[in-house]
From TrEMBL:
Matching PANTHER family: ACETYLTRANSFERASE
Domain of life: Bacteria
Protein name in the entry: Acetyltransferase (GNAT) family protein
Keyword Transmembrane among record annotations: no
Residue ranges of domain N-acetyltransferase in the record: 22-208
SUPFAM superfamilies attached to this UniProt entry: Acyl-CoA N-acyltransferases (Nat)
Keywords linked to the UniProt accession: Acyltransferase, Transferase
One Pfam family named in its UniProt record: Acetyltransf_1
Length: 208
């Protein structure tokens, strides 16, 4: 039996909904404390977020594909060379009216609390998710290798970083196997109120 190869390519609009479902698979535990939306509505929220909110210039999302299906994704961001901010216009409410204004507001506030502003030289992994049916097949490692290669080929970047919740020691152990080291442990009351997660580890991998 021939194994269908896995390929990586930059995010495209046609993958918005599939990536939305992936993010629900990966982070449902956080969002279930934030909103009562079902999984399909949450996926549509992310689909609309990708479609209507401009992508940050100093960022990149990649998808892992197998036989045309998105089975993994990683999003990275870094400090832009210019501090000039893009003008962002809030999209039409009609794009999100299926979700309800209160759910939309809570999701946007929650995502803002998870946002991290990278420092000079830092490449931050905003999210990395592998579909549950495709875990333990090396896809996560493939996505990490892509991120490491990206940093190593960019002269202004020298570290990879990420956050992991204290309630997920398995993920932290995986990152330690990939040579990430805990740089800072944070306790956040606000994040506890929104996500029921108070302890967050900030981990760093030096690559140069």
């Amino acid at each position: 039996m021939t194994t269908v190869p896995i390929t990586l390519e930059p995010m495209q609009t046609k993958y918005n909904l599939q990536v939305g479902h992936l993010l629900v698979h990966g982070f449902r535990g956080k969002f279930q404390h934030l909103t009562n939306m079902n999984d399909d509505d949450l996926a549509v929220f992310f689909e609309n977020l990708f479609e209507h909110f401009p992508t940050e210039p100093a960022s990149q999302r990649m998808v892992a594909l197998q036989d045309g299906e998105v089975i993994g994704t990683i999003s990275i961001k870094w400090k832009p060379e210019s501090d000039k901010k893009q003008k962002q216009e809030f999209p039409s409410w009609k794009s999100f009216n299926r979700l309800g204004k209160w759910n939309l507001l809570k999701m946007l506030i929650g995502l803002s609390l998870l946002d991290h502003k990278p420092q000079a030289g830092e490449c931050y992994i905003a999210d990395i998710v592998v579909h549950p049916d495709h875990r333990s097949k090396g896809i996560g490692k493939l996505l990490f290798q892509w991120a490491q290669h990206f940093v190593q080929t960019e002269p202004h970047l020298d570290v990879l970083s990420l956050h992991v919740v204290g309630s997920n020691p398995r993920a932290k152990h995986l990152y330690e196997l990939l040579s990430f080291q805990t740089h800072l442990q944070k306790n956040s009351l606000v994040r506890h109120l929104f996500f029921k997660e108070s302890k967050w580890d900030y981990m760093v991998l030096n690559l140069k």
